[in-house]
């Protein structure tokens, strides 16, 4: 496992690609801070010298200088707002891109344990807060520190005793902020977690809207959402309570600071420790001083939100991705012989670690078709997922053409395996784009040929936009049979040596299934094929049928051999065809 860097250092590293813009932003902040410190000094000179001594020319020069400074400051503020925010947005884009890339490499087990909506919340809401912190955090902190330190130094030149009296309140403000920090952090983390759960519920409800309508369960979904929504309100209420306590405390302390300046400054002027110009400058400098303190108070919420968001971002980035073994080789010239040798596997999310398959052995010769049948829970789909190494086995060995799949690069392994599943997933895009998932380098002619082999070309050709027709979200604009044919065309285009058919036709009606089966037979020709099926009529011609139960392989043989055996397979077969 890689050693994790300090969160602060990790955050700073994202500034490196944008350091030029960041330096420009900080330079603008520095100049603005200097201008803010000059105004009270010029005011003091005007009150003490230029006006009493009727120095009109000096008064006009000072006024013009202030006006020019205002104009320059306006330009610098534009740069801060535009380029500063751009730095934050670009950093956000970098993080989102890095996070998306990392998600593509995480094992399937991660997605088994984490909701889609929660992951989306971390990619959107959390990273937005991080980008705001990336822009405003350094800029506001830099402005505030320069202004506070500069004000302190200049005020000490006016009257050091009065300055020390006033600045005695600054440590108190810092202590209150430190005291509130832990409560702020906990409240923000809770809000982020609840917000992620709400996003997950919304994503699930929208994806299943047709199911909920069909079962008139909208009220049930609403109740579930209301529970999460109420929890979100409570989490936000807790956050705002902490915010209210923090801001009211800070406001009171800042008002008290201004009160001390007026009282102490007035007494110092009364006893002639300072003159009227210095008193006026002092009040202006304190106003200049309180502004950055108020800024620090305001951005504290932003710092907590951004820091919480970045921490949640790092939690995903610290998840271990799928990695090839150190000496992994590419699988080339695949023949397609598959062998399971005493394989045991249990899902990582199962705390009891109950084996889904235990000490399982099976050899599938190249070019042969093997069907897996049996009651649910026997591990049929799990076996299919283990071949392309979607999950890591606990014990044993799986080989392809004699090569342990753990010693093969995942990319070359998965290039050799094509999968057609019951639940076809189509990406939001065109028919052409979805078929091209089989081979992104394929020509239009190759895509059309794949569609013809899958018996879907004629349907696509009669559409107004042909292959450029949008399939809608998850292929909602297409029927189940049409989606299945596109999935088969995708597999034809990939042209894998090993084919996995996981309940590929079980969701279809009999007529559509028969049509799809023709396409599948074409696809299976010359390939090593593993078929999972509940409809036994679809696997009668398999070279071998494996009957799986919770205890492993119960029976194996051809369709005719298993019927003659008169065991579990015959029982299942007779049950399916008893009414025919």
Can you give a write-up of this model?
The chain has 580 residues and is an alpha/beta fold. Helix content is 63%, strand content 10%. It has 19 helices and 10 strands. The strands form 2 sheets. A 6-stranded mixed sheet has the order 6-7-8-3-9-10. Strand 7 (498-502), helix 17 and strand 8 form a beta-alpha-beta unit. Helix 6 runs antiparallel to helix 9, helix 9 (218-270) runs antiparallel to helix 10 and helix 16 runs parallel beside helix 17 (510-524). It is elongated. The mean pLDDT is 82.
| Mean model confidence by pLDDT | 82
Report the end-to-end length measured between terminal Cα atoms. Answer: 59 Å
In helices, the fraction of residues equals 55-70%
Q: Helix- and strand-based class?
A: alpha/beta
Record keyword descriptors for this entry:
four-stranded antiparallel sheet; alpha/beta; 580 residues; six-stranded mixed sheet; elongated; 19 helices
Topology:
Elements (H helix, E strand, L loop, with lengths): L6 H7 L5 H32 L5 H50 L2 H6 L2 H43 L1 H8 L1 H39 L1 H6 L3 H53 L5 H42 L20 E8 L11 E8 L4 E5 L6 H7 L8 E6 L2 E2 L5 H6 L1 E5 L9 H5 L8 H10 L3 H5 L18 H15 L3 E5 L7 H15 L3 E5 L11 E6 L2 E6 L1 H7 L2 H9 L4
Parallel strand pairs: 3-8, 3-9, 6-7, 7-8
Antiparallel strand pairs: 1-2, 1-4, 4-5, 9-10
Helix pairs in contact: 2-3, 2-5, 2-10, 3-5, 5-6, 5-7, 5-10, 6-9, 7-9, 7-10, 9-10, 14-16, 16-17
């Amino acid at each position: 496992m890689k050693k994790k860097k300090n969160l602060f250092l990790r955050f700073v590293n994202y500034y490196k690609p944008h350091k030029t813009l960041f330096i420009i932003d900080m330079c603008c902040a520095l100049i603005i801070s200097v201008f803010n410190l000059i105004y009270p000094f010029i005011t003091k000179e005007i009150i003490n010298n230029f006006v009493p001594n009727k120095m009109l020319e000096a008064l006009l020069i000072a006024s013009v200088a202030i006006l020019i400074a205002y104009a320059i400051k306006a330009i610098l503020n534009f740069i801060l707002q535009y380029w500063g925010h751009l730095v934050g947005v670009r950093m956000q884009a970098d993080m989102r891109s890095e996070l998306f890339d990392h998600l593509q490499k995480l094992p399937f087990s991660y997605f088994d344990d984490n909701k889609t909506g929660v992951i989306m919340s971390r990619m959107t809401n959390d990273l937005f807060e991080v980008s705001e912190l990336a822009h405003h955090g350094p800029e506001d902190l830099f402005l505030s520190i320069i202004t506070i330190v500069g004000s302190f130094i200049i005020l000490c030149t006016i009257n050091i005793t009065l300055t020390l009296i006033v600045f005695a309140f600054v440590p108190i403000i810092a202590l209150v902020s430190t005291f509130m920090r832990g409560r702020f952090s906990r409240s923000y983390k809770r809000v982020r977690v609840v917000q992620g759960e709400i996003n997950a519920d919304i994503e699930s409800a929208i994806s299943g809207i047709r199911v909920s309508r069909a079962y008139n369960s909208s009220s049930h979904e609403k109740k579930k959402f209301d529970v999460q929504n109420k929890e979100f309100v409570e989490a936000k209420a807790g956050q705002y309570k902490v915010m209210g306590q923090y801001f009211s405390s800070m406001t009171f302390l800042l008002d008290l600071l201004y009160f001390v300046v007026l009282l102490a400054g007035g007494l110092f002027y009364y006893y002639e420790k300072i003159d009227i110009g210095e008193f006026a400058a002092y009040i202006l400098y304190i106003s200049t001083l309180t502004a950055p303190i108020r800024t620090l108070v305001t951005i504290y919420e932003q710092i907590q939100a951004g820091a919480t968001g970045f921490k949640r971002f790092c939690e995903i980035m610290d998840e271990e991705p799928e990695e090839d073994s150190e000496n992994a080789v590419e699988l080339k010239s695949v023949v397609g012989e598959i062998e399971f040798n005493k394989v045991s596997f249990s899902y990582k999310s199962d705390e009891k670690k109950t084996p889904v398959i235990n000490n399982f052995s099976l050899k599938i010769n190249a070019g042969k078709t093997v069907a897996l049948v049996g009651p649910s829970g026997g591990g049929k789909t799990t076996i299919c997922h283990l071949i392309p190494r979607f999950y890591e086995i606990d014990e044993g060995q799986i080989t392809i053409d004699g090569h342990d799949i753990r010693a093969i690069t995942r990319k070359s392994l998965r290039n050799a395996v094509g999968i057609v599943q019951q639940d076809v997933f189509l990406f939001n895009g065109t028919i052409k784009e979805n078929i091209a998932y089989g081979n992104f380098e394929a020509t239009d002619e190759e895509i059309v040929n794949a569609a013809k082999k899958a018996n879907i070309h004629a349907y696509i050709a009669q559409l107004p936009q042909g292959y450029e027709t949008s399939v809608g979200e998850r292929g909602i604009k297409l029927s189940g049979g049409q989606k299945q044919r596109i999935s088969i065309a995708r597999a034809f285009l990939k042209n894998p040596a090993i084919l996995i058919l996981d309940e590929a036709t079980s969701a279809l009606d009999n007529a559509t299934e028969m049509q799809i089966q023709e396409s599948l037979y074409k696809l299976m020709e010359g390939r090593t094929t593993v078929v999972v099926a509940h409809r036994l009529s679809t696997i009668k011609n398999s070279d071998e049928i494996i009957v799986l139960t919770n205890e492993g392989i119960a029976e194996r043989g051809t369709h005719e051999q298993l019927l003659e055996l008169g065991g579990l397979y015959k029982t299942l077969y007779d049950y399916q065809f008893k009414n025919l």
